[in-house]
Design a protein that fits this description.
alpha/beta, Alpha-Beta Plaits, Rossmann fold, 2 domains, 7-stranded mixed β-sheet, 4-stranded antiparallel β-sheet, 14 strands, globular
Length: 274
């Protein structure tokens, strides 16, 4: 099967990680990314340039360049292995694909199939989530991943002794996330296809939400209903400029800010349910 490759380059490190999920909805099934570039792949027979342009319109101001080329089937595996680099977080966490050799010396090793890389550690927001979780005592805690993507945060939490579940609105992404959980032999987590309503009857100690500001604000009341008093909410997926407004909004919904971490243009906020 031949594939179309769409290569996008963004201003600075303003790569919007949520764009991968939007492209997945129109048939793109494989992604590689770093701080300012995204390469997305779709079977050539399913590629619709009009649908692509409809999605990219919202990002026009931050896209510096766009290139489209066809990749022949015989070059596909070689292309993946050359483009998909492993990631490390603070020399503690190694994140790679099945074709990477896992090095010694890391506390946690996470293996992800690169056919759905939304949330692989390549993007600053995922990287900050992992870095922050690595500083927390989560052994025996219950965790809810709101917008699970590749399942990476659930996998890491499972390896650290937590338990819980995630939700992912895209059914295909949820299936890929569960495959990643199985690949990493996770026994204490699963991913449900759906939205926050799937967590309505639950109570958890920790919520991680690597998702855009609008979704967090729209879900604030439900997030507060799910989390235990004194529980921790980690939010990422938004720009530094969104921080004051989002902080005020969540504080008005019974969350108390307890920490902040920035990486380039992106911010992670930490709250305690009050």
């Amino acid at each position: 099967m031949d594939y179309q490759e769409i290569a996008l380059r963004f201003e600075s490190d303003l790569f919007p990680e949520i764009l991968e999920a939007e492209l997945a909805e129109i048939g793109f099934d494989s992604f590689t990314s770093n701080r300012d570039t995204l390469k997305a792949y779709i079977p050539a027979s399913e590629f619709d340039p009009d649908l692509l342009e409809a999605i990219l319109t919202a990002y026009r101001e931050i896209i510096i360049s766009k290139e489209i080329q066809q990749i022949d089937h015989q070059n596909w595996n070689e292309l993946w292995e050359s483009n998909y680099d492993p990631v490390t977080v603070d020399d503690k966490i190694f994140i790679g694909a099945p074709f990477h050799q896992v090095p010694d010396g890391f506390e946690n090793n996470i293996i992800l199939e690169p056919n759905m890389s939304f949330g692989t550690g390549h993007h600053p927001t995922t990287h900050m989530m992992l870095r922050t979780l690595s500083t927390m005592d989560i052994m025996g805690k219950s965790l809810f991943d709101f917008g699970a993507g590749s399942g990476i945060l659930c996998i890491y939490a499972d390896q650290r002794g937590a338990n819980g579940f995630g939700v992912e609105i895209d059914e295909h992404a949820a299936q890929a996330a569960n495959e990643n959980l199985n690949l990493n032999k996770c026994e204490s987590f699963h991913i449900v296809a759906g939205g926050i309503e799937e967590a309505a009857e639950r109570k958890v100690d920790i919520i991680v939400a690597n998702i855009n500001r609008n979704v967090i604000e729209e879900s604030a009341n439900k997030l507060r209903a799910i989390i235990e008093d004194g529980g921790t909410l980690l939010c990422a997926g938004f720009l530094n400029s969104d921080t004051p407004a989002l902080t005020s909004f969540l504080e008005a919904n019974r969350f108390e800010k307890s920490g902040e971490l920035s990486d380039g243009e992106w911010t992670l906020l930490k709250f305690i349910a009050s």
